[in-house]
Write a structure and sequence with these properties.
By secondary structure, the chain is mainly alpha-helical. 53% of the residues lie in helices and 5% in strands. It contains six helices and two strands; from the N terminus they run E-H-E-H-H-H-H-H. A two-stranded parallel ribbon has the order 1-2. Helix 1 links the parallel strand 1 and strand 2. 14% of the residues are buried. The model has no long low-confidence stretch (mean pLDDT 85).
Length: 175
């Protein structure tokens, strides 16, 4: 069976809500719905036992969108500004979890995995809590932002940090 995967871009701005129906197991359409913020709809031809898998695909799509956006925005700043200024320096050495790593290994993927806190609100809260436990606590955590090409995305990220991540880690540092 052929994977369809073709979606027309709406002409109207703002466009009406977009919904995507999916029947197949491991549906790329339902994952794309999560990634793009569309309405996911599982077909009535999908056995109930598979509905949870469809929702997991929606969540995975949404999570990948955050990582892709972070890679684009944070990665651009890192590659253009931070990396050239740190390469071969003690600042680069301080970024490495293993001192024997070559500087070339401290790329955007490395930063996303080991340094930056990136993901959906739950993933960010988990990473903040893990960091807190790893370092033995801290008084405050500074959120550093980069101006992207989409101020709505920037504002939404900060809103989620305040409204969804913050409450999940509010107990840290309290006696």
């Amino acid at each position: 069976m052929k994977d369809r995967g073709f979606y027309m871009k709406p002409y109207q701005k703002p466009h009406p809500l977009i919904g995507v129906a999916a029947t197949s197991l491991g549906s790329t359409s339902i994952r794309l719905a999560g990634k793009r913020g569309w309405i996911p709809m599982s077909s009535s031809l999908l056995a109930p036992i598979h509905l949870k898998d469809h929702w997991r695909m929606v969540e995975a799509g949404a999570a990948s969108a955050w990582r892709e956006r972070a890679r684009q925005v944070l990665g651009r700043n890192y590659v253009r500004h931070q990396l050239p200024n740190r390469y071969g320096s003690s600042q680069m050495a301080a970024t490495k979890i293993d001192p024997s790593m070559p500087d070339e290994a401290v790329d955007v993927d490395y930063m996303m995995e080991h340094m930056w806190i990136v993901g959906d609100p739950q993933e960010c809260a988990n990473r903040i809590r893990q960091l807190y436990e790893t370092v033995g606590g801290f008084g405050m955590l500074l959120a550093i932002t980069q101006d992207s090409d989409n101020s709505e995305w920037d504002h939404r990220s900060l809103q989620l940090l305040m409204e969804e991540v913050g409450p999940q880690v509010a107990d840290l540092g309290r006696a």
